[in-house]
Design a protein that fits this description.
With 465 residues, the protein is of the alpha/beta class. The chain folds into 3 domains: 4-91, Udp-n-acetylmuramoylalanyl-d-glutamate--2,6- Diaminopimelate Ligase, Chain: A, domain 1 (3-Layer(aba) Sandwich); 103-306, Mur-like, catalytic domain (UDP-N-acetylmuramoyl-L-alanine:D-glutamate ligase); 317-464, Protein-Tyrosine Phosphatase, Chain A (Alpha-Beta Complex). The chain contains 16 helices and 23 strands. It has a 7-stranded parallel beta sheet with strand order 9-10-8-11-12-13-14, sandwiched between helices. Strands 18-19-23-20-21-22 form a 6-stranded mixed beta sheet, sandwiched between helices. It has a 5-stranded mixed beta sheet with strand order 2-7-6-5-4. The longest helix has 20 residues, at 445-464. The radius of gyration is 24 Å and the shape is globular.
Length: 465
């Protein structure tokens, strides 16, 4: 964060000083988790799921915070000097917005139903080959995460790659007003967060809000291979750069070669390679290449940046666990993401069997049962050797699979995740590929951990024998 006096902080958040606060003190950081407080931070006390941040104000000041910000509604519970505000979350957004105002960095905002995090990480890796900057930590893409990310900007930063998510109408518009992006990237539009967004058209309109937020000087980078993203071209006030595999894409992959561990694609005669499995990642690589070319980075430097890319945990991470090749794709699941997972597993060459372990796709509203049934049909048409399913909608997946001609011996249904993990040893053979997929709340990372434990047990038993 750019240094601010406490007095200036108070003015930005429209706050009121309560008690003996040192208004001349300098703040150069901002946190909402008291465990992360460092010397010179502003601590904003937010309401948590179990406790309120106001309970940690004294600890934050003791650990080096120069001031704490507290909502008027809970100010009576705060026994320390503080800045009182009407809305603590708004105060966080105001500080994030102001810090962005102070920065000359190029702000790249990335949204989409799937691919946001991977695209963000690839873009940042590419830009870091030449420039200094920051990116959103992990999946900090909501009303708290975006301003926190912007507050990481400091003097000297030349770029910020900010992930922008949404689970309800109007969120992208609000987040864009805080981030004020120079570039907007849209990866895909597909069924996701349908509890609130209710329809695919509503999802498209929500993502389109990022494009609409750009000024006439801004540039929209759109995945032309997705028809719903391509339609956003008419919503941009400034220039549009399209990317994809279609012949009319401005940044076009004319050759794509996949291997078990990497993607290789050719754009305008230049070859680019990135360590990522799954053909769906072509979209994300092209987004990074398009931005690199737009800002004048040479192809060899783009390649050098992409070579440093590492996937985030739970997002198509390739692991060798014992005798199995495991793709940990447990971070989230939606119809588009599961279809991508199917294609990734099908493309794998050096394995005995291709096995998908699948739990529920959540937040699909009234369409959940139908979309899981449709996923069963997609799995029946795939070349996967076996599918193991569990979850509340596992029956719908099985029904769709069998109704579409899937062989009964290709699918197993388990009443619980515990039962599934207990049966993994019986399901798998040496040299199998195992792709593990499910929405975050289904805790499919437990399957990956169970595989690790099984591998350790196998090693111990072999040594004992």
């Amino acid at each position: 964060m750019h240094p601010l006096t406490v007095k200036h902080v108070c003015e930005i958040v429209d706050g009121t000083i309560c008690g003996e606060v040192n208004v001349a003190a300098t703040a150069d950081g901002c946190v909402i988790d008291s465990r992360h407080v460092q010397q010179g931070d502003v601590f904003i006390a937010l309401s948590g799921t179990q406790t309120h941040g106001v309970e940690y104000c004294a600890a934050a000041l003791r650990d080096g915070a120069v001031v704490v910000i507290v909502e008027e509604s809970v100010a009576d519970a705060c026994l320390t000097p503080h800045i009182s505000v009407a809305d603590a979350e708004l105060a966080l957004a105001q500080l994030g917005w102001q810090n962005r105002q102070y920065s000359d960095a190029l702000v790249v905002a990335v949204t989409g139903s799937v691919g946001k995090t991977t695209a963000r990480r690839m873009i940042a890796a590419m830009l870091e080959s030449v420039h200094t900057g920051i990116q959103s930590p992990r999946n900090f893409n909501n009303h708290l995460g975006v301003p926190i990310s912007l507050l990481e900007l400091q003097s000297g930063d030349e770029f910020a790659v900010i992930e922008v998510g949404s689970s309800a109408p109007g969120e992208v518009e609000m987040l864009a007003s805080v981030a004020r992006p120079d570039f907007a990237v849209v990866t895909t539009v597909s069924p996701a967060h349908l509890d609130e967004l209710t329809s695919l058209k509503a999802v498209q309109q929500e993502k389109q809000a990022l494009v609409e937020s750009l000024s006439t000087d801004g540039v929209a980078f759109l995945n032309i291979d997705d028809p719903l993203v391509a339609e956003m071209q008419k919503s941009a006030s400034g220039r549009v750069v399209t990317f994809g595999t279609a012949e009319w894409a401005e940044v076009r992959a004319t050759a794509v070669v996949t291997s078990d561990e990497s993607l290789r694609l050719t754009v305008d005669g230049d070859e680019y390679t990135v360590r990522a499995c799954g053909r769906h990642n072509v979209t994300n690589v092209l987004a990074a290449i398009a931005i690199g070319l737009e800002v004048g980075i040479a192809p060899e430097q783009i390649n050098a940046g992409l070579a440093t890319y590492e996937p985030e945990a739970g997002r198509c991470c390739l692991l060798q666990i014992g005798a199995w090749t495991v793709i940990d794709d447990t971070y989230n699941a939606s119809p588009a993401a599961v279809n991508a997972a199917i294609r990734t597993a099908e493309d794998f060459q050096h394995c005995r069997h291709r096995v998908l372990v699948l739990n529920d796709m959540l937040d699909l509203g009234d369409q959940a049962a139908d979309l899981h049934y449709g996923m069963g049909a997609a799995l029946a048409a795939s070349t996967l050797d076996h599918i193991a399913v569990t979850g509340n909608f596992a029956g719908d997946v099985v029904d769709g699979f069998l109704a579409s001609g899937g062989a009964l011996n290709r699918i197993s249904c388990f009443a619980s995740l515990t039962t599934l993990t207990a049966m993994l040893d019986c399901l798998l053979c040496d040299n199998d590929l195992v792709l593990v997929k499910g929405s975050r709340a289904t805790r499919m990372e437990q399957v990956v951990e169970s595989l690790r434990q099984l591998a350790l047990t196998d090693v111990a038993e072999r040594r004992a024998a």
